[in-house]
Amino acid sequence: MSTSYPLPGATRRALLIGAGAGAATLAVPALAGVAAARPSEVDTVLEWYDVTAATIGVISGPLQVNSSRTWAIGWIAAWRAVTRTRREAPAAAALAGAVHETLTTLVSARTADLDAALAVTLGRLGTSPAVRAAVDGGREAARAVLAERANDGLDLASVNRPFPPPAPAPGVWQPTPPGFAAAVQAGQGDGRPFLVDDVRAYLPGPPPGLDTARYARDLAEIRAVGAADSALRTARQTDVARFWAQSSLNGYTGALRAAVAAAPRQADGHGIARRVALVALFHAATIDAQITTYAAKYRYLRWRPVTAVRGGDIAPDPAWTPLITTPAHPEYPSGHTTYAGAAETVLRTLARPPVRPVALTSPVAPGITLTYRDWRELTRDNVDARVWSGIHFRHTDEVGAAVGRRVAAAGLARWDGRPL
Fold first, then answer.
1. 29-162+211-415 has which fold?
2. Which residues form the Vanadium-dependent haloperoxidase NapH1-like second helical-bundle domain (predicted)?
3. Minimal CA–CA distance to 409: which of 289, 233, 275?
4. For a 10 Å CB count at each end of the chain, is N or C smaller?
């Protein structure tokens, strides 16, 4: 029997822990190897998970936290609405109503598609007074969460506010080649978190000094294995690096779906509520981790490896080029690994380990499929991938993963069964 990882002393948290396998069709290109369900066995949770994923689509880094916010708002609203009923059909209708209302508000260009998806769901669930009331309750919950999150600093303009680069100095971030683009996501660290009160409590200490052995070791490693023309990086390492060049949100959509699919499908509102809460808490916790990451990035303003290798004091190489183009924001800590550490913590705490290998694909690395048997393996690959990409020092990645774990654990501990 597989082991789950409950947090102690929380009766509603226990609703998130379950055993048993599930399977359903994946409507977005994120997870391979799952079977189609018969029409009589349509899983409304996965149905609206896939609707959300398709509506968000493939996004880039500057869009990530805003897109994560859309996920969180919709599924927090769904959790609130679903927990008002113990019957399966009204609970499923409440979920659909909440997510539909959120997505049509925040991604209004997709309203026609979302209306069609809702019609399919309601055509299956029927039009009883209880179902109609549940849809209305879901919509009401979504409007309430949208109002609560108004002016939370996670809109695109606030997140990507202009940031003038600092004066050049050893160790200090500067725009990076080839485009030398202005910094992005400079305002993200000022966003309002979902679960923790203040991200400043979880900021890491400063990165290693330029005169430390750790810095010299990391610099030598990335110079050797992170270069575009590295003779030491293996073909598999290159595949992992290219695979995880996608946004973390897209990268983990299939992994979270696998966890939701594996949760037991109890024929009542509690079974739906448990699985909805997993999605809601995953996105709430990873948003808090992202806010923490960028608060630290723009506090420490650490230079990127390409700047250090090309113009630093240790054997400068002006021609050195990383495998993956360096993102336009400071080095420390790594956003990908902070997200990964938070995601790992939520999945290990609230979901069972994978019941079978989880095969994932990447929209930015066609033809590459990576298979994972434990949630920790995704964090491991994220840590390595950013080094093999030539865009992060290893210490940066390791600290990021630790920060993400710490933020997510604190957020889950604070939840304690209270409404999100």
1. Vanadium-containing Chloroperoxidase; domain 2 (1.10.606)
2. 273-406
3. 289
4. N
State the DSSP string of 232-279.
SS-HHHHHHHHHTTS-HHHHHHHHHHHHHHHS---SSHHHHHHHHHHH
CA pair distance 173, 302, nearest whole angstrom? 5
Q: How far is CA 408 from the centre of its chain?
A: 12
Pairing between strand 369-372 and 358-361?
antiparallel
pLDDT in tens, 371-417: 999 999 999 999 999 999 999 999 999 999 999 999 999 999 988 65
Element housing 361 (H / E): strand 358-361
Written as six digits, the tokens of 208 are 């290693």
H or E stretch including 300? helix 269-300
Distance in angstroms (rounded) separating the CA atoms of residues 170 and 313 = 8
Which two three-digit tokens encode residue 328?
A: 């336009």
pTM of this structure: 0.90
How far is the C-alpha of 393 from the C-alpha of 289, rounded, in Å? 19
How many residues does this entry show for the chain?
A: 420
